[in-house]
Amino acid sequence: MAAVRHRVARLLQELQRASCRCPAHSHVYSQAPKNDTSGTTDYAFEMAVSSIRYGENVTKEVGMRGEEDKMRKSFQDVPQDLQNMGAGRVCVMTDKNLSTLPPVKAVLDSLAKNGVCFKMYDTVRVEPTDSSFMDAIHFAKKGEFDAYVAVGGGSVIDTCKAANLYASSPEAEFLDYVNAPIGKGKPVYVTLKPLIAVPTTAGTGSETTGIAVFDYEKLKAKTGIASRVLKPTLGLIDPVHTLHMPERVAANSGFDVLCHALESYTALPYTMRSPCPTNPINRPAYQGSNPISDVWAKHALHIVAKYLKRAVKNSDDREARFSMHLASAFAGIGFGNAGVHLCHGMSYPISGLVKTFKAKDYLVDHPIVPHGLSVVLTSPAVFTFTASMCPERHLEAAEILGADIRTAKLKDAGLILADVLRKLLFELNVDDGLAAVGYSKADIPALVKGTLPQERVTKLSPRSHTEEDLASLFEASMKLY
Questions:
Q1: What rounded mean pLDDT belongs to the chain?
Q2: C-alpha distances out from residue 301 to 1, 238, 327, 480, Å
Q3: 412, 452 Cβ separation under 8 angstroms
Q4: pLDDT (0 to 100) of residue 281
Q5: Burial 398-423 (b: 16+ CB within 10 A, else e)
Q6: Burial class (CB in 10 A: 0-12, 13-18, 19+), 114
Q7: Which of 228, 338, 440, 481 is spaced 20 to 30 Å from 168 by Cα?
Q8: Looking at the predicted structure, is the pLDDT value of residue 75 above 80?
Q9: Is residue 77 predicted with pLDDT exceeding 60?
Q10: Could you tell me whether strands 147-152 and 90-93 are parallel, antiparallel, or unpaired per DSSP bridges?
Q11: Residues 317, 310: contact at Cβ < 8 Å?
């Protein structure tokens, strides 16, 4: 055991030393020139987020039509519920496990009470694939729905986004909107139907974003679709639903919030992202860190620091569970515009290449490394690697998460943040690195290969990286403790 800890420490130190190759051990982001006059980097960012409604038992409003609105013909200036949207035929999407639980019952009761005609699709796959997306798309096209309700975690909400997109664009090929280089990455010009998202986990923030992620089976790697057009019309954040999350689901969902916040706060600044779009519609959903996203990311980190452990260890701790549900949305607003980077880029092959590992508390019939777990397992190595580009931000994040940085040196920022993260993971009984979820050193080339297509996120790393760097990060993540 001591030998393993020594090896992990040595690998992290090597990553730290490697990060010092930047000029003068820079204290600012340095992947691109700070004052670019060539016009190749961007000069603007956009904030786009779904309308959000938060409150205990707010799900009951999903089918309502307010008395004061009955005479209106247009409700485009207010967050709308299904009757207000004039929805006549609604698709409700969820998964098999949730279909019998209170969150779905609350939605169906509201629809029935308010006379909304609906049809339910309850076979969403946890950690969706292109095949499962296409099955949901077929259902949506056949149903000719004029509104959608997604009840579940990120898998359900993302699947519903994709179903809405392709049902609204029936002539499109599946890969037309999928992110390049796997797909064609075409801009979305069609108008989608209204979508209300009812998140039941405190992790993905998918109710706030225009992102839909899936496993592309042919390559055994995750990719996705990214467009502001995909954003739900309304996110109904009902914290009561989080009380039904099992312990490991709460933990892994919380790790997703943690990494969303950390990665968006340390992402390449929007003024250093290239290329600069020739038309605003081509500006990506993930634009780089910016002053507005920074606020949401830091606030989410503060909530995670205070409540994550409590939320995991005690499912009856309403204050903690409810606070983490808000933190998920806050981090979603942040990363939904700033983006994420290496933890997420590397997580996609970790999930996509899973062999036999089945995470505790996930009632599925297939091997699964849950998304939040796949993201957080590389976080100590990643933030050791990226810290030299923006050490102040890494130190600030470490302090928020509980580190004493009063005598800390900037050159140690990455190691300090890594130590805080490992301590948190150990206290929450997280599997001991990639080896514990079924990977070995022999798998590193495949993991690296699966990371390379994730340019949408990896290009937002504050530090440029090679395939050899990625291999070192995977190796350093095989064991955590």
A1: 89
A2: 31, 21, 8, 22
A3: no
A4: 85
A5: bbbbebebeebebbbbbbbbbbbbbe
A6: middle
A7: 338
A8: no
A9: no
A10: parallel
A11: yes
